[in-house]
Amino acid sequence: MMSVPPRSYLPSNNGGARALSPNFLTNTLKDSLAAGLLAALLALPMLGLRMVDSAQGLSLDYRFSWVGIAFAIVFVGRLVMSLVRKALAQRSAQRHQAAPAPSTDSHPHRLRKIAGWVLVAAALLLPWSPFADRNLLDKATLLLIYVMLGWGLNVVVGLAGLLDLGYVAFYAVGAYSYALLSQTFGLSFWLCLPLAGAFAASFGMLLGFPVLRLRGDYLAIVTLGFGEIVRVVLLNWQVVTGGPNGISGIQRPSFFGLPFLAAVPGKTTFHEFFGLPFSPNHRILFLYYLILVLALATNLFTLRIRRLPIGRAWEALREDETACRSLGIDPTKTKLSAFAIGAMFAGFAGSFFATRQGFISPESFSFLESAIILAIVVLGGMGSQIGIVLSAILLVGLPEWFRDLQQYRMLAFGGAMVLIMLWRPRGLLSGREPTVRLGRVAESEGVIAAEEGSAP
Amino acid sequence: MTGPSTPPSLLHVEHLTMRFGGLFAINDLSFVARQNEITAIIGPNGAGKTTVFNCLTGFYKPSVGRLTLSAPGSNQRQLLERMDGFRISKDAKVARTFQNIRLFSGMSVLENLLVAQHNVLMRASAYSLAGLLNLKRYRDQEKKSIDKARYWLEKIGLTAQADWAAGNLPYGSQRRLEIARAMCSDPVLLCLDEPAAGLNPKESLELNDLLLAIRREERIGILLIEHDMSVVMNISDHIVVLDHGARIADGTPSEIRNDPAVIRAYLGTEEDEDLPQEVAVDLQQASHQGAR
User: DSSP for A78-141?
Assistant: First the structure.
């Protein structure tokens, strides 16, 4: 009779030695070797061979050392990546053992809130920072336009889940509304702003009606078509829109009636009124703060409406339309309101764009713009307000600042997008904070650290 | 047969017929569901039970027939077959659950219950205007709605999970949450499509208690489709048996248990053994296509 000693099934947590078992090491080495060889194979035609222009005509130059370097880089990189990933997986596994995954942890959300306030403060103080110049403020203004558009589109795509590829159409409607209203009727910017928003919103409804039955890809295609229709109409309706020549000489913004000019006969200008020396930077500064206010208003509105019944209905509609109908929610009205509100913000942004540029043409409202705005929303993490700011900086800000890098700029842009989608397939900041909490800490297990009053 | 003890009728289904092409999913079906009673609709697979629900809740427009709802306390009668899908819940107060659970799985449990109170909240928020300004009238209603949600959470034992994403709940809890969500829309008639599907025997018993409590305390009518006979026979006041879209029996659980037609439909007889199978498959396909 032999008694087998009981085998221990307990996982040993004392780490390193066991983690790097020989089996794991060989597999990792093999894997890295394969990746390196693949890189070498690719590098051979791309880096290894080079066409040289010599006196005798074209000849081939061989640079096998480059191939070797590519192999080495990829091999080592892959090896390091595997090891790091293994270590990370182990650490997170240990953490999981310590605490069963809570379904909603509010810690990152608090961090996000702090980050949000920091960003707002930074944006407010930016013009007074030592390195602020006209160029920087111009770029920041452009960036803020995209942030605002992203936040507006987020209502449609992020909350209501309606994939809209023609968002730029509403931006165009807003811009042309302002340009035409101010040129034809001489209305001021502050009067045109709400009007442009209203026009864009009614265009949103107009688009909304025919596409109510569509979902997902089909909706995307129709909205894409709508965006093109608007652009083509602007391009061809010469009499009203000026066709490809666009509209120039659009009234520049005034500080509640005080123009930003050196001198206007019969009128007090901004610098005269405040007794400042004239500076063209006043207007830049004013535009910057104007778009900042508009964007923040968009943000506050979205944050608030998300907590209202209509916002919850949007999200519910995104999750399950059938269930919504069975609960008495009118899908038509709900969808139309999402389209209209999203479009309204694009209209505001559009009229700001028109007053800032002083010139608009259909070229500014191409499909590429829609695609960039949508990419900002998707990359930021659907429904995440701060995520949208980050991805706008990434997608609009960085390419602007790195214009000097010329053609590599777009390469880096594309690469960054691929990387982000690989690492964070649900966007930079995904994860959704409930719009309302019961305000009671879970008695069982103490998993949820739901602090009371986390919702303002 | 309106005896003195019978509660007033709530829903009259008269000559309901639903055709998909040449196929009769429901054929001339009539029955009555009463207030404060649990009415079960049973029948073999493909008998047309879910189609009845889809007609009732506006997902299909019936080919022929009348569906009349007489809400308690008002002498107004509502013709469900003429109403848009969402109005049946909003105005006629008929709520339903689904055979394959349809929760808003990314939203929290509490949010699910608040979405069900959309119309009340929407009115209080004056189509978001009062809500945006955070007026008192909206805050009060929101508090009331959260209290109602809290009541139902207590009832289904999910208070501790109120802030979880609904999709993270275990299956049985999701079933109960869907019932609670339907109840939060203040229905006069609650239609449950196979609420016990996929539940273990213990959960099934809990479900029985929940449904009986709803009937006792809310005094509403419950219409129930169910295969689980332990649920049907224990809690139903009244059972309607369907086969091939037609009613083959109607009565109390004990009457149904001994009805020869029911036994034949469930167990089959020799002469019609192949046919029903075919019809059942066809019907199921048809109703699937209709649902898309």
Answer: HHHHHHHHHHHHHHHHHHHHHSPPPS---HHHHHHHHHHHHHHHHHHHGGGSTT--HHHHHHHH
Burial A423-432 (b: 16+ CB within 10 A, else e): eeeebbbeeb
A316–B146 CB contact, under 8 Å: no
* Whether B107 and A301 lie within 8 Å, measured CB to CB: no
Beta bridge partners of residue A54, listed in sequence order: A57
Beta bridge pairs of residue B165:
B108
Sheet (strand B64-70) strand order = B23-34, B9-20, B64-70, B77-79
Which candidate, B148, B122, B150, B119, places its Cα nearest to that of B137? Answer: B122
Where on the phi/psi map is residue B150: left (φ > 0), alpha (ψ -120 to 50), or beta? alpha
As a whole number of angstroms, the distance between CA B260 and CA B280 comes to 20
Question: Do the beta carbons of residue A189 and residue A351 sit within 8 Å?
Answer: yes
Q: Are B22 and B219 in contact (CB under 8 A)?
A: no
Closest residue by Cα to residue B127 from A205, A308, A304: A308
Q: What is the pTM of this model?
A: 0.77
Q: What is the predicted ipTM?
A: 0.84
Distance CA A433, CA A136 (A): 34
What is the mean pLDDT for each group of 10 consecutive residues in chain B (292 residues)?
67 90 88 90 87 89 88 79 84 89 91 92 82 84 91 91 89 92 92 89 90 90 87 89 88 87 75 49 51 46
Residue of B nearest to A104 (CA): B164
Chain A residues with at least one Cβ partner in B under 8 Å: 103-104, 301, 304-305, 308-310, 312-313, 315-316, 318-320, 322-331, 432, 434-438, 440, 442-444, 448, 450
A448 contacts B118? CB cut-off 8 A:
no
- Amino acid identity of residue A364, one-letter, is S
CA of residue B47 relative to chain centroid, distance: 17
A233, A376 in Cβ contact below 8 A?
Answer: no
List, for residues A61-72, the tens digit of each pLDDT value. Answer: 888 888 888 899
Contact A440 B106 (CB under 8 A): no
Q: Are strands B38-42 and B238-243 parallel, antiparallel or unpaired?
A: parallel
* C-beta neighbour count of A304 within 10 angstroms: 16
pLDDT tens digits, A301-341 = 999 999 899 999 999 999 999 999 999 999 888 999 999 99
Q: Six-digit token pair at B93?
A: 């107060």
A253 Rama sector, left if φ>0, alpha if ψ -120 to 50, beta otherwise: beta
Q: Residue A73 has which token pair?
A: 């880089």
Complete domains list, chain B, with CATH: 9-93+187-291 (3.40.50.300), 105-185 (no CATH)
User: Could you tell me if A168 and A152 are in contact, meaning their C-beta atoms sit under 8 angstroms apart?
Assistant: no
**Long-range Cβ contacts of A177-180 (<8 Å, 24+ apart):** A177/A347, A177/A350, A177/A351, A178/A250, A178/A350, A178/A351, A178/A354, A178/A355, A179/A247, A179/A250, A179/A354, A179/A360, A180/A240, A180/A241, A180/A247
Give the pLDDT means over successive 10-residue stretches in chain A (456 positions). 45 46 82 89 83 79 85 90 84 61 55 84 84 85 94 92 91 94 88 93 89 81 91 91 87 78 75 78 87 94 91 92 91 91 95 91 90 89 85 84 72 77 78 75 37 34
Beta strands B94-96 and B189-193, pairing class: parallel
